[in-house]
Amino acid sequence: MRWDYHNDAPIYTQLVDQITRMIVSGSLPPGERLPSVRNFAMEAGVNPNTMQRALTELERNGLIYSQRTSGHFVTDQSDYLEAAKTRLAAEAANQYLRDVTALGYSREEAEKLLQSVIRNVEECKNGDSNL
Amino acid sequence: MRWDYHNDAPIYTQLVDQITRMIVSGSLPPGERLPSVRNFAMEAGVNPNTMQRALTELERNGLIYSQRTSGHFVTDQSDYLEAAKTRLAAEAANQYLRDVTALGYSREEAEKLLQSVIRNVEECKNGDSNL
Amino acid sequence: MRWDYHNDAPIYTQLVDQITRMIVSGSLPPGERLPSVRNFAMEAGVNPNTMQRALTELERNGLIYSQRTSGHFVTDQSDYLEAAKTRLAAEAANQYLRDVTALGYSREEAEKLLQSVIRNVEECKNGDSNL
Amino acid sequence: MRWDYHNDAPIYTQLVDQITRMIVSGSLPPGERLPSVRNFAMEAGVNPNTMQRALTELERNGLIYSQRTSGHFVTDQSDYLEAAKTRLAAEAANQYLRDVTALGYSREEAEKLLQSVIRNVEECKNGDSNL
DNA sequence: GTGGTCTAGACCACC
DNA sequence: GTGGTCTAGACCACA
């Protein structure tokens, strides 16, 4: 896992985002025990307080739960994970639509634009793999 | 024009974004003179300094230019405007792709998801028009 | 003559600079009568007030003199023009030395740097002439 | 460090220039932490906002970077610093050439003029040391 | 304590 | 009237 941060947003927010992705994408499977706050913070290269704050946020979101003495665990309600996943994806799609229509594009153009960008990405990927 | 701000980003950034959209979408046509800094600030409900900062940023981006004693003007290089428009749209599309693939979706699913969201939006629109 | 202005300095200052160069470089010869303020301003694409201010400044510098009813003339004291020329050149050289030593270069390096830049310019010139 | 300002340019610009020189000349070494905005401003005798603006500009130029809660640091990419140094020096040399050729001198004369000015400076220095 | 944003109000040169 | 700079002082989130 790569942990890199930018300056435009609070670190704890970026932690929440990244861990969320790890969970809903399954790279942190349901029921999995997370490293201790202290270790997890070291791994991510941040202050334990910051990691604690991120975990609290994730617990508030229902993606993880904490057991008093034994640590934090990814929720094992996989239907909930699935719901979170589709919700986040729908949010992203709506954001994209809002952005691109604000620029003066129609919804059809938004669709075509996405397709051309995808083609573009795939060409680059192929180019890279040839290096 | 609606000027509404949220709390996650600095106001001057949001001003830059909104004015950028007004320009590239053509609602502020090339060569058009903007209101004076003070008036524009009043209209947007912010301090003149904040608006000034936003305009400085826009000038740095090449979307407007300032003429020392007569005001700010939308650039009249329409090819540049067009380039900015497509650049911003491509950024939005890439952002969407990044978000949604980070959640574990494939690029094909990203496309289908967008289509279903668009259908959804259009149904809502129709629903509204039936009210 | 090209008259183009940038935004970082007052227009009248830029006029003073450009006319000064025209005079000391001889493109406006000693004793020459300048166009009327009104015409000169039109030619330069500026407000007559602005041109007037520039001429006043030039008169203060002794590069031109005005005769009540017949207009402005380049001074015919060619020794004075010569002196102004060398003074301005010396100022430029000193400015260059100050700039470049502030960056941490020695005076010898300043000399070598200038030579390499000159070579560079001449290559570009040759390249252009081949187009 | 001497902080003296003249009236022809905005203070924040002059701050940028002076700090840039401190950095590229090595008097502020790579990786070095700058004083806090407030302290730096006090030291330079300006308002914290003004210093902040200068630092923002320097960050945009890539000469420093800011770490959200711990301060500003000189970039540690020394190759970049070296590039900036030579770029600034080349700009100064070009400026000198432009100035002096606009006065009607040839490039050879520009070179000789610089040499004579350098000799002049060194004589003065020697004169000083004899006092 | 750090950077950063925002407001308020004054001031300036320019045209 | 225009843009632009500067100061003063308050406020905030982050670590």
Nutshell version of this structure?
Helix content of chain A is 63%, strand content 6%. With 131 residues, chain A is mainly α. The model of chain A has no long low-confidence stretch (mean pLDDT 88).
How would you describe what is shown here?
The structure is a homotetramer of 131-residue chains. The first copy, chain A, is mainly alpha-helical and 131 residues long. The first copy, chain A, folds into 2 domains: 11-76, Orthogonal Bundle (Arc Repressor Mutant, subunit A), CATH 1.10.10.10; 80-125. The first copy, chain A, is 63% helix and 6% strand. Chain A has 5 helices and 2 strands; from the N terminus they run αααββαα. Chain A has helices at 11-24, 37-44, 48-60, 78-102, 107-129, and strands at 64-67, 71-74. Chain A has a two-stranded antiparallel ribbon. The model of chain A has no long low-confidence stretch (mean pLDDT 88). At the A-B interface, helix 4 and helix 5 of A face helix 4 and helix 5 of B. Chain B binds a DNA duplex (15 and 15 nucleotides) through residues 10-12, 36-38, 46-50, 52-53, 55-56, 66-72.
Which structural category do the helix and sheet elements of chain A fall into?
Answer: mainly alpha
The proportion of strand residues of chain A reads 5-15%
Biggest interface, CB < 8 A: A-B, 30 and 30 residues
Q: Order of strands side by side in the largest beta sheet of chain A?
A: 1-2
Which CATH architecture of the largest domain in chain A would you pick? Answer: Orthogonal Bundle
Shape of chain A: elongated
Rounded mean pLDDT score of chain A? 88
Find the count of extended strands of chain A (DSSP E, 2+ residues): 2
Counting structural domains of chain A, the number is: 2
Number of helices of chain A: 5
Please trace the helix and strand order of chain A, writing H or E for each element: HHHEEHH
- End-to-end separation of chain A in angstroms reads 24 Å
Instruction: Name the helicity range of chain A.
Output: 55-70%
CATH class of the largest domain in chain A: Mainly Alpha
The largest β sheet of chain A comes out as:
2 strands, antiparallel
Low-confidence stretches of chain A: none
Report the radius of gyration of chain A as a whole number of Å. Answer: 18 Å
